Amino acid sequence: MTTTKTRPALARRLLRRPSAVIAVAWLVTLTAASLGAPLIAAHGPLDQDLTQVLALPSAAHPLGTDSLGRDLLSRLLYGGQPALLAVAEALAVHLVVGAGLGLVAGYLGGWVDHLTTRIGDLLFALPAIVIVLVVLSVFPGNLHAAMVTFGVLGSPSMIRVLRSRTLGIRQEMYVAAARVSGLSDAQILRRHVLPRLTSTVIVQAALFSGVAVIIQAGLGFLGLGAQPPAPSWGGLVADASQVIDRDPWMLVPAGVPLVLTVIALMALGDAIRDTAVENWSVSKLAASGPVAPPPVAEEMAEETAGTSRAPDPDALLSVRDLTVEIGGVPVVQGVSFDVMPGETLGVVGESGCGKSVTALGVLGLVPGGGRVVRGRVVFDGVDLVGSPEGLARVRGSGIAYVSQDPMVGLDPTFTVMAQLAEAVRRHLGTTREQARERVLELLAMVGVPDPPSVARRHPHQLSGGLAQRVLIALALAGRPRLLIADEPTTALDVSVQKEILTLLHTLQRRTGIAVLIVTHDWGVVATLCHRSLVMYAGQVVEQADVEPMFVRPLHPYTAGLLAANPHQAVSGHPLVTIPGAVPPPRDWPVGCRFAARCPHAADDCRAAPVALVQPEQARLTRCLHFEELVDEGVRR
Amino acid sequence: MSALRLVVRRLLASTPLLFLTSALTFVLVSLVPGDPARTIAGQHSTAEQYQLIRDRLGLDQPLPVQYWNWLTQAFHGDLGSSLFSGEAVTSILSNRLPVSLSLILASTVVSGLAGVALGLLSARRGGVLMRLVDGLATLGLAAPPFWLALLVIEVFAVTLRWFPVTGYVPLEENPGGWAGSLVLPVTSIALGAVAIIAKQTRDSVLDTMNKDFIRVMQANGFSPRSILYRHILRNAALPIVTVLGVLMVSLLGAVVFVETVFAMPGIASLTQQATIQHDIPVIQGAVLYITVFVIVVNLAVDLAYVRLDPRVRTS
């Protein structure tokens, strides 16, 4: 429906790209000049001037002359006519066969699709140029037959792309709706499918045309196209090759226009694709306009809030004022916390609050090209921020990491044994044999049944739960003192989740390892953690021992999260949720970031950044009105 | 064991391709207006001589029978003989095969090694090098191979006089000369191909770098060298191998031109000559050889997949 409107817009936006403008200008000029060659060229393509043999460019011959004194510019322009015709022929066939079959295969599916795909694969495996040569041996000098053949042989790429696009569109809702409303297949194709495929087809067509230009010139070069003395682009290159030792200049007018034409076609294809993608993403993201720098709340009086500025010397890990930016936008701001030896700290919050970024920031591995811009991460007395050596020493042997989705956490191309043994050897410096033994011990330690058999497997042969155990074993290979687990159970089945939690619990009791666990599941916090940290919109909003936090939350966000805990849901009552959503980093307000969703929010909340305060021993909250929560809790 | 099964299955699956190309060639060739018997017999032959040749070539039989005969002979290693030299097609092709194979294999090895190195470098450095690789890839795709070959000749043979302009020295005759005679043709081909491999390498290395398991390895202290060369490269290798396979097949096109430009007696230039001369048995033989080559390359790619990706091995 909107497609007819966006198409002229697409063309207009396309012309805002310099590369597209230059490409179009070149192609239009070339086409016009070739078609108008008799009007433009000062000399006939066959006019010989034996006094001007192999001349360099001059006013009379802008591109010079060849070995018979013929004007190269006019031979180039006249040669453009058969070249353009040949490309047009190949392109027409390519479009009819490739686009037609792709569309039909994608739309109809079933055996038609199957057959088309098979034929496409077969055609794709054929060396096109050789088949074209065979055709030319049957139809000597018939460039039309050659280009038609080439159009067919080049169709598999078009078939593949269009087939998958059409398949995608067909499955969309409104096409299904159009079907139900009784439109015929032809009508649906014309009205709903074809308009959306236009840019895809043009992109493919542009790329194919580029190849066709080279092929037709190549055939001319081999003497299989237009016969001398008739001018052709390939023939020009062949002429140039005859005089290469005497007149290398001729290579330039013979080849450069050819190369430029192909580049122009490729650039045009790229530009159309990029414009179409841009079109899609702009409408998808809703015109947001230029992004204003996000309001960065000035952190105040952090010292008064209990966590002193200085790292805690007794802590195993002491994070102070950690600030992480991704693409210049702060996503985690001024986060401070400690993890004591043997302690389990839970980091809780909804998706997009910066929990995972905080965890990875500790290891100096912020995803998406982000980096730690401020703060200190002191592990075992060493500040890791800005210290690649410190990080290299600590990773694996001091701090280990378990990722969220175990199915993609292991290298799919190596066996479990190979990966674990590599970790063991790296950290413990053992022999190959000792490493293998240690791997089996580790696997037994994380409760893997039949370690030797599992060790021989590749990751894709493991179940999710087994893969997570292997990942935990990998993390333990370097005998770390702190384990950072980023939602280690989220991707698993509920029954397996319990097993993994039990495993972590057992391991912790047995080895005394400290754990920093990122989760949005209060069940995990209740089972494993001593203390927990609640994060909202890149900041710590509350920190407390687990029991007091469950019983008496001092931040409305914590209270909301606890109320929304599905474990506490009473059957028959609707699940409680916090209205609204976490604002993205660029939309963070100046004042309290939770104010927009908070039932207690007042004007003072929105006025200025809210600092963390310490209402009682070992508790922190970033709320101006926590007393109201306390009163409410008492009333409840 | 599973690799063997794959080979067998693949070979069975490629049989249609062999039949398709040979039957296609056969049908096309039957459309040729000329009469091969007349060509062979020459102008001064008697009617009996002419008819004898027609009988020998089986030209009076229906097309499917002719095709069947050709097939059965082909199975026995007999592809007929050239209409011009009278030499057996198999022996012509066997003489020519090493030339084209040297050219294609050397070009693949050179552009593969250089392309992967350049791609890795540009993935790690980014910036200018990355744009250079992109630009080179565009140029490599856009510049016709025959024109690139002429440029290479102009620079290295005519101006600098470092290498011979044309010709081919067989490997068994003089290994040094063989390598020397390959330098310029391979350079002409690789100039275009290197950037294509480099671009693919960079894209798949960057793609692999963002995988979860790489972060897990980094976080757990695997050595950066091992992460890059053992894990990233191996995972990135799959798409690179695919592109290398496609490249090897598409190099056939470039080889047609490069053999012509450098006057190398390979299969591709033979096909081109036979095309001009309408030497049908030679064309049929060449198409058969080339199809077999394509099948072997695809098989090699599949085997590389099996070697590299355990998921293919067990599925």
Characterize the structure shown.
The complex is a heterodimer of chains A (636) and B (315). In chain A, 52% of the residues lie in helices and 11% in strands. With 636 residues, chain A is α/β, with parallel strands linked by helices. In chain A, a hairpin with a 2-residue loop joins strand 1 and strand 2. The radius of gyration of chain A is 35 Å and the shape is elongated. Chain B is mostly helical. Chain B has two domains: 45 residues, no CATH class; 226 residues, MetI-like (MetI-like fold), CATH 1.10.3720. Helix content of chain B is 80%, strand content 0%. The longest helix of chain B has 38 residues. The chains are: A alpha/beta (636), B mainly alpha (315).
State the distance separating the first and last CA atoms of chain B.
13 Å
CATH fold naming of the largest domain in chain A: Rossmann fold
Distance between the termini of chain A: 55 Å
CATH H level, superfamily name of the largest domain in chain B = MetI-like
**Structural class by helix and strand composition of chain B:** mainly alpha
Overall pLDDT level of chain A: 84
- Please tell me the total number of domains of chain B: 2
Instruction: Report the CATH C-level class of the largest domain in chain B.
Output: Mainly Alpha
Q: What fraction strand of chain B?
A: under 5%
Keywords (chain B): Cell membrane, Membrane, Transmembrane, Transmembrane helix, Transport
Transmembrane segments (chain B): 101-123, 135-158, 178-198, 236-262, 282-306
Protein name (chain B): ABC transporter permease
Family (chain B): Belongs to the binding-protein-dependent transport system permease family.
